Amino acid sequence: MRDSSLPTPRRRTVLAGAAVAAAAATLPVAAPAGAASRRGRATTQAYRWRTAAIGGTGFVTGVLFHPAVAGLAYARTDIGGAYRWDSAQARWTALTDHLGWDDWNLLGVEALAVDPAFPDRLYLALGTYSQSWASPGAVLRSNDRGVTWARADLTVRLGANEDGRGAGERLLVDPRDSETLWLGTRHDGLLRSTDRGATWSPAAFPATPSANGQGVTLLVAAGRTVYAGWGDGGTALYRTDGSGGWQAVPGQPSAGAAATKVPIRAAYDAGTRALYVTYADGPGPNNQSNGSVHRLDTVTGVWSDVSPVAPSGGDAFGYGGVTVDARRPGTVVVSTNNRWGPVDTLFRSTDGGASWTSLKDSAVLDVSETPYLRWGATQAKFGWWIQALAVDPFDSQHIVYGTGATIFGTRDLVHWAPEIRGLEESAVRQLIAPPSGGAQLLSGLGDIGVMYHESLTASPSRGMASNPVFGSATGLALATLKPSYVVRAGWPSGGAAGAYSNDGGASWRPFASQPSIAASAPGPIAVSADGRTLLWSFIHWDGTKYAAQRSTDGGATWAEVPTFPKGGTPVADPLDPSRFYVYDTDTGAVFVSRDAGARFTRGAAQLPAGDVQFRIAAAPGRSGDLWLSAKDNGLLRSTDGGLRFTAVAGCQASHALGFGKAATRWGRASYPAIYQTGRVSATYDGVAVLRSDDAGATWTRINDQAHQWGWTGEVITGDPRVYGRVYLGTNGRGIQYADPQ
């Protein structure tokens, strides 16, 4: 599967920093959404924000139980923040939704750490990308299990959504001193803090990082000794006992699968004083074909190869997760990773790795709570990308593991089900709130195609839209005068790249034919107001653009539209079936069709250009009423079908825009409610979620400091049936929706 944890990188201005050591800033997470006023007009309104239920949908890269508190656990994701497990409610609570637009790069969690001696302490190392265009990482620390945070900014970059993101925890509280923390980085060696993460400085480490390598892949405590994995070749495992720096671990594996020297994860069995290390020939989660599991007797220094199965040419894979049972010495569980033949599994041993049992072979999976895990009509899989793995230290029968889409758990080693409530990591691309019918919402997502949401509080019962099944959705459109007709496009899973529905998205059929380019470069799709004309744009993931195609027979035949700007996003007029619009981001011009998409002519020109995320939205129930979100160039409007645009006064930035049911004033409906993620100085200095009930004359901020979710510039829409309700797509925190309080 293509993973929602691999979105197109959101390039933002890199934050400057002068030194690794940085002063911490206290962050009040639960800031109230109080009312403020400007010239007598309210500019904020309290909303109740919730997350639409799907169930995971992204790569869970780490799960960590607290060793001293029953029922307390944490999870990290590659682009969707961190979570705390609430055992009483049997659900996860998001801990990093307060991170705002400028901190979008901090939604990826590189590592997390707890303090065994102080159960309320929690630490997060944040940073999604380590490239020069990304902002540096940060360390958050909490004294109340993630309710509130203090922050220390770093000058080094972390890579929670890069290769190696499923490796071990790179952050560790020193077992000899709770004031000391270690942080392993990918390109800047080892950092150390002696003031509980408030400031950081480089620590002496014997290995030299590579510009394109993995650096420190894991940190684990074994009694009072700290072990560090190294992923840049040469010596793979180091240790320190605090008496004289770091040294290579004697006798470590240097032949066979371990010769690749990429230690993935490690776990220490205090009962037998054994350290278990998993190895692979690459950092993963992709592109692993060989691996092994080794045990170190930390008393005698003797190493043993205890691999359950040796990978072979017909069964190539690496080893990923490893965990021990704190209640039963000698019991260890490991996971395979990137095993696409027999499918990944967990191996469990009760004799220190002398013999193993595959837990997959006896597993009974129940995915009824999250039906999409059946991947269309197929049977649910045990999982893939299994690198996060943990045994509950208070319950030997409770094992959990993360996959590329969910967290599975068992309470009896046989029956497995998702333990994912509250954890949502979708990268949301399209949202449609239908004006009628059985669906409350239709969503187009990264990795898992299109969903039909009958309810917002339960995972869609139909699962992923099938016939065909897509990976990432690239287009979703509804015929506004015939809302039962819906079309979608996306990366095909071995079949068609486009489909249509005559029942509002409840069921689907592939187009009878498709352009040859569709399978390799599916792009956005539009349908005319009456459902008779389809316009399909094509753009490859590498940015190559192709000519759009048009169909007037429901997808039976297609013809190229030479006058359509290549790679543009077509928009249908809500009332006039003969009109389509497209914004050419290369030239900064709007092109208009008045013959149902057969030909396009230039309309307004000399508009902002150069960013593919500039986009047009058409106001519902009106013809030719267009709004252009031009990011930091603000918001523009046309009331003549795209011939002229005028800047909307007071709006400094607009990133995503949509419409909902109009407010009722004096018994009459006003202009449709407008929702956007943007910046209006009268409400807030940063990017916020905004609503206007008067065609953009004034704006009300409807989110608060506790609800920001990093980057939210892809899609937003209101509900045509419920005034005030808004649906917001995030890049890693799923679908957020809210109603006024």
From TrEMBL:
Family as reported in the entry's similarity comment: Belongs to the glycosyl hydrolase 74 family.
GO MF term list: hydrolase activity, acting on glycosyl bonds
Protein name: 1,4-beta-glucanase
Any one of the GO BP annotations: polysaccharide catabolic process
PROSITE patterns from the UniProt entry: TAT (PS51318)
Species this protein is from: Streptomyces fulvorobeus
Domain of life: Bacteria
Record keywords: Carbohydrate metabolism, Glycosidase, Hydrolase, Polysaccharide degradation, Signal
Membrane-spanning parts: none
